[in-house]
Amino acid sequence: MSLLERLNQDMKQAMRNKEKEKLSVIRMLKSSLQNEAIKLGNPELTEDEELTVLSREVKQRKDSLHEFEKANRGDLVEKIQSELAYVEIYMPKQLSEEEVEVIVKETVMEVNASSKAEMGKVMGAIMPKVKGKADGNLVQKVVQKFLS
What does the pLDDT read at residue 94? Predict the structure, then answer.
């Protein structure tokens, strides 16, 4: 079942259960996916393209959450946290820090990186492997630790 089909089913269920917030988030996700399909000129998105859209939505919410916390906007923080929880339901299982460390170690060996100057090369090789499964900030932190 594609992500769009799953969203349609969940949207119908949210309508039946009168879950306004969940319905709003699902509609927003569907809209983002459809906009991406139009932008790319494809009627159907690949799984990788769907993952890219979901990752972008998660990142936007995490950035907003950080800004609202800095501004002491508790009302908006709660709203964004619940939206984030709904969006993360559709994301693949996230890798633990230990799993990321294993992937980083393998990739550092593959690209023969030895200094922080080669961090870009390592990050470029790692990110496609962990796309949607690990936060970029966590990966960056682990790579810095390995290269220092």
Answer: 86
CB 122 within 8 A of CB 107: yes
What is the DSSP annotation of 10-73? Answer: HHHHHHHTT-HHHHHHHHHHHHHHHHHHHHHT-SS--HHHHHHHHHHHHHHHHHHHHHHHHTT-
Which class does domain 97-147 fall in?
A: mainly alpha
pLDDT band at 60 (very low <50, low <70, confident <90, very high): very high
Q: What is the mean pLDDT of residues 113-141?
A: 87
How many other C-beta atoms lie within 10 A of the C-beta of residue 31? 10
Q: What topology is assigned to 3-88 in CATH? A: Hypothetical Protein Yqey; Chain: A; domain1 (1.10.1510)
Q: Contact at 8 Å (CB) between 50 and 87?
A: no
pTM (two decimals): 0.78
Asked if residues 11 and 4 have their Cβ atoms less than 8 Å apart, the reply is: no
* Domain range summary for the chain, segments of one domain joined by +: 3-88, 97-147
